Amino acid sequence: MGESKPLVNSWTEFGQLELVCVGSAEGMCYPDDRKPYRVIHISQDENLKQYLTTFIGPRPPKRIQQAQEQLQNLCSLLHGEQIEVKDVEEIDGDIQQMLKRKRCSVVDQQPTTSSDDKRIAKPSIDILRAPSGKRFDHVIRTPHFESHYQFGLTCPRDIIITIGNTIVEAPTACHSRYFESSYYRELIYPLWNSDPKMKWIQPPRPTVSESMFNDVNYWDKTTSEQFKRDFKTNGYKTNLNENEIAFDAADLMRMGKDIFYKKDVFANNQGLKWLRRTFSPEVRFHAVHFPTDGTPHIDVDLIPLRPPSSGSHGIVLINQLHPPLKAEMKLFTDNDWRPMFVPLPACMDTPPMALCSPSLNMNLLSLSEKCVVIEECEIPLYHFLEDELGFDVITCPLRVLNEFGGGIHCVTWDIRRNDSCKDYFPEQNYEEECKIDLDNYFETEEYSVKTEDTNRTEREHKLN
């Protein structure tokens, strides 16, 4: 008798997705404005900042309802098997702009009438929802800090990651998200009880005390522009020091045997060391740096779409607003991955209370090596993926979720994909890479369009 199929298995961002958790906006709050690292910046609007310096407490019920409707629509699209795409133009009430959209909906297996609208067929994906009925407007206390309002459960991707058959709860350095992963345990325990091969671990929980930060008043003294300049010139050091292990799950990007780790304000070098020691030798972890982006999470900077195959390059998307280091992209180009810059966002304006930058346009979810889900307003990205790269592109409205901290990748957590720990980067010297002193690391040359063109020419010469 053959072995039963595992419930927990996910090694990549692009294997066929079979089971996924989708977040919930219920009970969401604007968390406390804590000095070590402020998660909430009141607004991108400088005029509003003249009147308000912070915003804490329960979020408006109407906004929560709108967010829940968008999350439920995403669930329907993931679960559906026949998707129809229509052209729509609607006003975005948050920014008062008319935006063109590619709107998808679930339809019957067979169309009842002839239609010129595009149809996409895909397997149904099983859905788990983040626990409901939770509230985050109560005080939490540890020996090291207290927080009066917590974040919520909109973005499971930030807090939990599946690496193979192992679920990892991230050691976040954020006060308002300190116990967030524990809410998901009512989903994780049934998986644990049903899948005998599943593993479940958590790094040492950081104290998130003042000793973890170089200056608790840093964000009172520093503008975002000054932070960007300092991050690039001071060896990618941030206010988060190396006294304890810290990272968010969304600082990792999985590509089989190799996982890429973004150094930023929530992820330090101690976190990378813990991952390397814990998962070695089965998995290799690589540090990646984005000189103009020290903000949290890699899924607005680098997203793999599909791996190299016979007669086809692998494709990895990168953000032209925040390019990676040229030296670190060499691992990709040496292994037949083609870095491609994502089109600029369709709209650079965000809602007044958005926690995210416009770069969320590339915060997509891959359902397979041939099908992706993006935000419905991102028409340039839609045509890039469909017309130039040949993907089936499913869209969903999710701009309200920008206010709640994420895009389509952020609000999901892969639990099972049909993939394996395959080596997509055989050409490398990992032992030498691990000797690099990342505490004194001053590479600054960015990957550029010129670099991309040069690499393409070199590959073509090798083939000829």
UniProtKB/TrEMBL annotation:
Pathway: Amine and polyamine biosynthesis; creatine biosynthesis; creatine from L-arginine and glycine: step 1/2. This is Glycine amidinotransferase. GO terms for biological process: creatine biosynthetic process. Belongs to the amidinotransferase family. The active site is at D248, H297, C410 (amidino-cysteine intermediate). The keyword Repeat does not apply. It is an enzyme of class 2 (transferase). It comes from Didymodactylos carnosus. InterPro entries: AmidinoTrfase. Keywords: Membrane, Mitochondrion, Mitochondrion inner membrane, Transferase. SUPFAM superfamilies: Pentein. It is found in: Mitochondrion inner membrane. The keyword Membrane applies. It catalyses: L-arginine + glycine = guanidinoacetate + L-ornithine. Its EC number is 2.1.4.1. GO terms for molecular function: glycine amidinotransferase activity. PANTHER family: GLYCINE AMIDINOTRANSFERASE, MITOCHONDRIAL. Homodimer. GO terms for cellular component: mitochondrial inner membrane; mitochondrial intermembrane space. Catalyzes the biosynthesis of guanidinoacetate, the immediate precursor of creatine. Creatine plays a vital role in energy metabolism in muscle tissues. May play a role in embryonic and central nervous system development.
